[in-house]
Amino acid sequence: MLENRIKYRHLQCFLEVTRQGSVVRAADVLALTQPAVSKKLKELEEILGVRLLERSKKGVELTPLAMYF
After folding, report:
1. Can you tell me whether residue 69 is helix, strand or coil?
2. Quick count: other Cβ atoms within 10 Å of Cβ 69?
3. What is the per-residue pLDDT for 23?
4. Over the stretch 33-65, which tens digit does the pLDDT of each residue have?
5. Rounded Cα gap, residues 63 and 55, in angstroms
6. 5, 15, 29, 43: which is deepest, by most CB within 10 A?
7. CB-based contacts of 8: which residues, under 8 Å, 6+ apart?
8. Mean pLDDT, the chain, whole residue set
9. Do residues 23 and 54 lie in contact, with contact meaning Cβ atoms separated by under 8 Å?
């Protein structure tokens, strides 16, 4: 079941990254390391089976599929 695998921290990291437009800035706001936030995002994407964010040097953008979640 998805609800048992998705944790609050996954959602918190995803939301903050989308708010900040950056994994690094989200990590600062959440008082986490950048690798910890990246790991949570990767876990969430694996659980859902879709890529939620496009990452680049300029920051992150939601993928079209992310709009459905």
Report:
1. coil
2. 12
3. 95
4. 999 999 999 999 999 999 999 988 888 999 998
5. 10
6. 43
7. none
8. 92
9. no
Which pLDDT belongs to residue 57? 85
- What residue has token string 């990590």? 27
pTM for the whole structure:
0.88
Quote the CA–CA distance of 69 and 58 in Å, as a whole number: 23
Domains of the chain: 2-63 (1.10.10.10)
Distances in whole angstroms, Cα of residue 50 to Cα of each of 30, 34, 54, 67: 24, 21, 11, 11
DSSP summary character for residue 50: S
CA distance to 63, 66, per residue, from 41 (Å): 13, 12
- Tokens 């990767």 locate to 42
Count, in order, helices (H) and strands (E) of the chain: 4, 2
